[in-house]
């Protein structure tokens, strides 16, 4: 038995939300996932089973916000339990890798007497013992300010750029934001591609429901690329696509970071006018890709794996904001 | 009532309604729903500014969902400038923590085993058992010493022990979540917790805010004295050692005799001494009845021969239940704070019947009844199941049937606690008062 442990050892853990994703990240890092699991009991309580030592390790816990009405809160609690288990097992540093941050959209008090749940989740993670958070394309980057620990908000933009450059011709392209909130994201992308951009302004009556849409910009005869941070019920995307075609667009492709696809999203896409919807594998989508031929998945694992590697080695992460891995 | 408002989570609206009715208050308006992607959303319909807010949510059902809902409810109240937020969890979330035995009994691990359930989740309490399965028992050490006349064999045993530790490496354990749950509730913004019959009284110490642990004892005493015929001649039985104190307290007050069922879990290797111990610890051999069962998935009888055959498997335990006390021709009243898969209590009841008990009551504060518990209870030796509405019992009640199940109402205890806390009166009177 040697007393000198490697001073810089790292462990990757995962909850049950997206095991394949974690395995891919571990593969890129040439590692295996630590033997620490979350189990569920018949009374639906969860518990963490720790099968290997994580004392003084640099721990990365990969768990994404997914699962729909049945599992989302379970996965969030799993993450908290894993963080706390690592804390009580004397991990040196605990980093939560949460590609799709749960409750990110409840980030403000838009009505009276509602919770700012994103802030609550941030507090919960810190309370559980998190030292660092890695996430991707936060719905509002201000959420970073909800934490009093460092948050690395990665961007899928470099990968999206890479995809557009490889797969779509840039000559007759126009980048479209489906809502005013995403205008900044789209403008930056359009700048880098040197293409025009357009914007759809929508008036929302209720959450998850879209009412009236107005297009700002010219899309006649162009291939439109709708860019958004997440696709949930896809009501917005499908309506936007209809509107763009109505205004003379040649075809419409959607590119989103997080494909949540809840409710009637898949039938909507299948029957809708979208030519293609491209999203990252930050959510478990293999089952959906089987029933939705329009769905194309880009692998974002290298970016997260590189972020983990850089964070672990104490290197700068900002390179990843502009460069695909 | 001053500036008071009571809200209910989605776990037990019936209880909340009863509490409100007792207090003469309209239930607070709150809209609890979920977005399409599964995120819980909370919006209060009544103003909570500068109010004394009480939120009722019990920890049974889809536990994690309900817990997140509770946290969001607390947070929303805090953000809406509530004066004080008191959380009422009749059954506290994650109050019973599964200890590392779970892994010893083949707990499902991770994604590949998702959906598998532990058949017999064990009520846990902190144990001082060694974390290492290969620690030599005193007996082994003695044996080694006896053999130690020549140094070589002793060294050899040591070496094999080392090798065993090296191959098994890390002894797996289940992380305890009590502190986390307490911290999460506090960080969400709760100022006060009211709960009932906490499984581990130490849980109160995990909180940095006041916790009022109400007792169902007065309610149970009332039931026994009024509904159990000739209760003075009945026996109060605790189905495990952990609940002995709770059961004995009731036996003391009602001056009833008391018996205890003790459950032992021993490694198969320790088989023979454990039998010796058992024979030793029982005053009369007639009252020794051992219902033995092995690890699930291994049909194994308790006999030294099989024990020696299965020595290779380290993770094998034999559990033995034995009764301490006399129940022959008596009516037994089993008392437990929490029944989940119901294996402990049903096993206890069959042991009591084997020992000649006439009739078995089971008084349970929190009936979670997960898995196949209701069918197990229905077919068990228990003649009457008495539980409370701390957990919503409507489905269980129809499954078990009105003739075997009685539900006691705890809402009055909680309403009185709410009234007293709101008025700044003492709550301690509730610990003894008969309801």
UniProtKB/TrEMBL annotation, chain A:
Source lineage: Eukaryota, Fungi, Dikarya, Ascomycota, Saccharomycotina
PANTHER family: RIBOSE-PHOSPHATE DIPHOSPHOKINASE FAMILY MEMBER, RIBOSE-PHOSPHATE PYROPHOSPHOKINASE 2
Residue intervals of the Ribose-phosphate pyrophosphokinase N-terminal domain: 10-129
TM helices/strands, residue ranges: none
Full protein name: ribose-phosphate diphosphokinase
Reaction equation(s) it catalyzes: D-ribose 5-phosphate + ATP = 5-phospho-alpha-D-ribose 1-diphosphate + AMP + H(+)
Family designation: Belongs to the ribose-phosphate pyrophosphokinase family.
Listed Pfam families: Pribosyl_synth, Pribosyltran_N
Protein's cellular compartments: Cytoplasm
One annotated GO biological process: purine nucleotide biosynthetic process
Gene Ontology cellular-component terms listed: cytoplasm; ribose phosphate diphosphokinase complex
Enzyme class: transferase
Entry's Gene Ontology molecular function annotations: ATP binding; kinase activity; magnesium ion binding; ribose phosphate diphosphokinase activity
Keywords: ATP-binding, Kinase, Magnesium, Metal-binding, Nucleotide biosynthesis, Nucleotide-binding, Transferase
Keyword Isomerase: no
Matching SUPFAM superfamilies: PRTase-like (SSF53271)
InterPro entries, alphabetized: PRib_PP_synth_CS, Pribosyltran_N, PRTase-like, PRTase_dom, Rib-P_diPkinase
EC number: 2.7.6.1
Record has rRNA-binding as a keyword: no
Pathway named in the protein's UniProt entry: Metabolic intermediate biosynthesis; 5-phospho-alpha-D-ribose 1-diphosphate biosynthesis; 5-phospho-alpha-D-ribose 1-diphosphate from D-ribose 5-phosphate (route I): step 1/1
TrEMBL record, chain B:
Molecular function via GO: ATP binding; kinase activity; magnesium ion binding; ribose phosphate diphosphokinase activity
GO biological process per UniProt: 5-phosphoribose 1-diphosphate biosynthetic process; purine nucleotide biosynthetic process; ribonucleoside monophosphate biosynthetic process
Entry keyword Transcription regulation: no
Record field: compositional bias (Polar residues): 114-124
InterPro entries: PRib_PP_synth_CS, Pribosyltran_N, PRTase-like, PRTase_dom, Rib-P_diPkinase
EC number: 2.7.6.1
Ranges where the record places region Disordered: 100-134
Superkingdom per UniProt: Eukaryota
Gene3D superfamilies linked: 3.40.50.2020
Pathway the protein contributes to: Metabolic intermediate biosynthesis; 5-phospho-alpha-D-ribose 1-diphosphate biosynthesis; 5-phospho-alpha-D-ribose 1-diphosphate from D-ribose 5-phosphate (route I): step 1/1
Root EC class: transferase
Catalytic activity: D-ribose 5-phosphate + ATP = 5-phospho-alpha-D-ribose 1-diphosphate + AMP + H(+)
UniProt keyword list: ATP-binding, Kinase, Magnesium, Metal-binding, Nucleotide biosynthesis, Nucleotide-binding, Transferase
One Pfam family cited in the UniProt record for this chain: Pribosyltran_N
Domain Ribose-phosphate pyrophosphokinase N-terminal, first and last residues per copy: 5-101
GO cellular component, one term: cytoplasm
Family per record: Belongs to the ribose-phosphate pyrophosphokinase family.
Protein known as: ribose-phosphate diphosphokinase
Organism, as annotated: Ogataea philodendri
Source lineage: Eukaryota, Fungi, Dikarya, Ascomycota, Saccharomycotina
């Amino acid at each position: 038995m040697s007393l000198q442990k490697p001073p810089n050892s790292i462990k990757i853990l995962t909850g049950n939300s997206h095991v394949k994703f974690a395995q891919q990240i571990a593969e890129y890092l040439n590692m295996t996932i630590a033997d620490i699991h979350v189990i569920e009991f018949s009374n639906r309580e969860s518990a963490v089973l720790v099968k290997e030592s994580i004392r003084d390790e640099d721990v990365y816990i990969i768990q994404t916000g997914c699962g729909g009405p049945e599992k989302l809160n379970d996965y969030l609690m799993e993450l908290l339990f894993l963080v706390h288990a690592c804390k009580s097992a004397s991990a040196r540093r605990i980093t939560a890798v949460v590609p799709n941050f749960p409750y990110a959209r409840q980030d403000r008090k838009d009505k009276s007497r509602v919770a700012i749940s994103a802030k609550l989740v941030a507090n919960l993670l810190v309370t559980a013992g998190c030292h660092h958070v890695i996430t991707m394309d936060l719905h509002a980057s201000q959420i970073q300010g909800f934490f009093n620990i460092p948050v690395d908000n990665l961007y899928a933009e470099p990968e999206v750029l890479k995809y557009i450059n490889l797969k779509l011709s840039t000559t007759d392209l126009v980048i479209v934001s489906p809502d005013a909130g995403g205008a900044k994201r789209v403008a930056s992308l359009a700048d880098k591609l040197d293409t025009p951009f357009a914007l759809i302004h929508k008036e929302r009556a209720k959450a998850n429901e879209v009412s009236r849409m107005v297009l700002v910009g010219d899309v006649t005869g162009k291939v439109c690329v709708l860019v958004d941070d997440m696709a949930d019920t896809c009501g917005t995307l499908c309506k936007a696509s209809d509107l763009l075609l109505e205004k003379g667009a040649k075809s419409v492709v959607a590119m989103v970071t997080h494909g949540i696809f809840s409710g009637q999203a898949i039938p909507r896409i299948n029957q809708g006018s979208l030519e293609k919807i491209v999203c990252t594998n930050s959510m478990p989508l293999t089952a959906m890709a089987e029933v939705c031929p329009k769905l194309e998945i880009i692998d974002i694992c290298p970016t997260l794996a590189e972020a983990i590697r850089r964070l672990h080695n104490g290197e700068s992460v900002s390179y990843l904001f502009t460069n695909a891995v | 009532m001053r500036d008071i408002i009571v809200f209910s989570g989605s776990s037990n609206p019936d209880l909340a309604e009863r509490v409100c009715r007792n207090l003469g208050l309209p239930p607070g308006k709150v809209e609890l729903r979920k977005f399409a992607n599964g995120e819980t959303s909370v919006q209060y319909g009544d103003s909570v500014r500068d109010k004394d807010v009480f939120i009722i949510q019990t920890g049974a059902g889809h536990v994690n969902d309900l817990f997140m809902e509770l946290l969001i409810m607390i947070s929303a109240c805090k953000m809406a400038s509530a004066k004080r937020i008191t959380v009422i969890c009749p059954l506290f979330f994650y109050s019973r923590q599964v200890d590392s035995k779970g892994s010893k009994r083949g707990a499902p691990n991770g994604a590949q085993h998702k959906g598998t359930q532990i058949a017999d989740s064990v009520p846990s309490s902190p144990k001082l058992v060694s974390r290492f399965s290969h620690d030599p028992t005193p007996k082994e050490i003695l044996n080694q010493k006896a053999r130690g006349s020549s140094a070589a064999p002793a060294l050899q045993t040591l070496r094999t022990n080392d090798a065993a530790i090296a191959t098994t490496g890390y002894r797996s354990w289940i992380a305890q979540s009590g502190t986390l749950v307490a911290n999460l509730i506090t960080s969400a913004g709760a100022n006060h917790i009211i709960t009932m019959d906490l499984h581990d009284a130490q849980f109160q110490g995990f909180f940095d805010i006041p916790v009022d642990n109400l007792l169902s004892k007065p309610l149970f005493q009332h039931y026994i004295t009024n509904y159990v015929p000739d209760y003075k001649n009945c026996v109060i039985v605790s189905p495990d050692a952990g609940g002995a104190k709770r059961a004995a307290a009731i036996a003391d007050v009602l001056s009833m005799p008391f018996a205890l069922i003790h459950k032992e879990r021993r490694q198969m290797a320790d088989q023979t001494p454990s039998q010796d111990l058992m024979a030793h610890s029982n005053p009369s051999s007639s009252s020794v009845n051992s219902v033995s069962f092995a690890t699930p998935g291994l049909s194994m009888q308790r006999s030294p021969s099989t024990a020696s055959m299965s020595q290779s498997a380290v993770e094998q335990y034999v559990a033995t239940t034995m009764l301490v006390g006399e129940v022959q021709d008596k009516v037994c009243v089993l008392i437990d704070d929490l029944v989940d898969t119901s294996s402990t209590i049903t096993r206890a009841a069959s042991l009591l019947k084997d020992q000649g008990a006439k009739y078995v009551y089971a008084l349970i504060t929190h009936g979670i009844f997960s898995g196949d518990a209701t069918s197990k209870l229905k077919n068990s030796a228990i003649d009457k199941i008495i539980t409370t509405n701390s957990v919503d019992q409507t489905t269980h009640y129809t499954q078990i049937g009105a003739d075997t199940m009685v539900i006691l109402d705890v809402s009055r205890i909680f309403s009185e606690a709410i009234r007293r806390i709101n008025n700044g009166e003492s709550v301690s009177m509730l610990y003894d008062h008969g309801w």
